[in-house]
From TrEMBL:
Transmembrane domains' residue ranges: none
Compositionally biased intervals (Polar residues): 110-120
Location(s) in or outside the cell: Mitochondrion
Region (Disordered): 50-78, 99-122
Similarity section: Belongs to the mitochondrion-specific ribosomal protein mL50 family.
The protein, known as: Large ribosomal subunit protein mL50
GO CC entries: mitochondrion; ribonucleoprotein complex; ribosome
Major subcellular site: mitochondrion
Keywords: Mitochondrion, Ribonucleoprotein, Ribosomal protein
Keyword Mitochondrion listed: yes
The organism's place on the tree of life at top rank: Eukaryota
Length: 381
């Protein structure tokens, strides 16, 4: 295996710090750096490049290496402390943009010591004479000006619901007549989803006076349909609740009508309009899931005319005057417990205090079984 021949020890080179005499005109590196004009040339080149890149005044310093921006003020506080606001306004934007008069926010009174220093003539009050009376928050919305008429809820359906089937059938026939009147006038497509004018009792009588003719499954009106459509599409009038049809009147009207009008077939748009109008007049809303299965007027009548729930015994007894005149009889809607009975006569506070003195539970069993004595006798505990 060949080996590298032994290399003799390197001789130390002579250290000559003085510049060589062979090149006396050549300056040293430090001297060359000192007399260099590179910064000036670079500044001119930078101005030329900045002028080409920016048509107007160029942003930023001309020389970013020498003209540095001033450092921003630093803080030792954490970001949570810097972002903290003493009293942030957390009121929703919808409430701030509304026309409601909101209650005033909580304020703190200036201490008496600070008032004396700022106003030497300050004298503390000794009575409440002349002070402004501020109402509580619970009665804020009952005060005038805090809740306007424009902010009140305007329900689409009737507030008083109709429970009798005959009365529901009367208003359903009115809705069908009005539907046919709008279809014959050619404005049903524009008014199918809008609110129709309800009118007074005379409008109801004139609508029910129009006859419905059914031939080959198609319905038509035997009367002036244009006048009915004009009354429905007129400007809505703010009137009180119109006079309702009584149960006896409804029974007579239902007997005089031909039941063939209940077999009128309704498409999806017609069903929606009739359901909407019936909800406006009677307050009975047919659910969407059940409305999809209905195909005729009779189906909608079956869904809208619900049997009223039977009254409870409490409701029946509360209407009796002979029971209300008795001083020792009182009707309740639920069972009265023992604690409620003792509270009425004023003994519950005494019972509660005595139970606490003996270390017994006030209510419940505190985890103890009912037959604790039996467990003691049998030796289970």
């Amino acid at each position: 295996m060949p080996r590298i021949p032994r290399v003799s020890g390197l001789k130390a080179l002579p250290l000559n710090l003085a510049p060589s005499s062979a090149s006396p005109a050549r300056p040293s590196f430090a001297a060359a750096r000192a007399i260099s004009t590179t910064c000036v040339a670079r500044g001119k080149n930078t101005e030329w490049v900045r002028g080409k890149l920016w048509k107007g005044e160029a942003p930023g310093p001309e020389d970013p290496y020498t003209q540095r921006p001033e450092p921003e003020e630093s803080s030792n506080l954490p970001e949570e402390a810097l972002e903290y606001q003493p009293h942030p306004d957390r009121t929703p934007a919808q409430i701030l943009a509304s026309r409601l008069t909101l209650p005033p926010k909580r304020t703190e009174a200036t201490p008496e010591s600070q008032l004396k220093s700022s106003d030497p003539t300050y004298v503390p009050a000794t009575d409440a004479e002349g002070l402004e009376e501020i109402s509580t928050i619970t009665t804020w919305w009952d005060q005038p000006g805090h809740w306007g008429a424009e902010s009140e809820f305007d329900a689409f359906g009737s507030v008083a619901k109709v429970a009798d089937k005959e009365i529901v059938e009367v208003y359903l026939r009115r809705a069908v007549v009005e539907l046919l009147a709008l279809q014959e006038s050619g404005v049903f497509a524009d008014w199918a989803t809008k609110k129709w004018n309800e009118g007074d009792r005379s409008a109801l009588d004139s609508t029910l006076a129009v006859e419905i003719q059914v031939q080959d499954g198609k319905a038509s009106l035997n009367g002036d349909a244009s006048s009915l459509s004009q009354g429905l599409t007129a400007e809505l009038e703010e009137v009180d609740t119109p006079e309702r049809v009584t149960l006896d009147e409804a029974k007579e009207l239902v007997k005089a009508w031909d039941p063939a009008w209940k077999s009128i077939a309704l498409d999806e748009q017609a069903k929606f309009a009739v359901r909407k109008r019936l909800y406006q007049l009677t307050g009975n809303l047919v659910p969407d899931a059940k409305l999809a299965a209905a195909t005729t007027v009779k189906h909608i009548l079956t869904l809208a005319a619900k049997e009223p729930k039977p009254q409870k015994l409490t409701q029946l007894l509360s209407r009796r005057d002979d029971l209300q005149r008795l001083s020792n009889v009182k009707v309740h809607s639920r069972k009265i417990r023992a604690i409620e009975k003792e509270t009425v006569v004023g003994r519950w506070k005494v019972i509660e205090e005595e139970l606490k003195k003996r270390g017994l539970p006030v209510t419940g069993t505190a985890g103890l079984s009912k037959n604790k004595e039996r467990d003691w006798i049998t030796g289970k505990a």
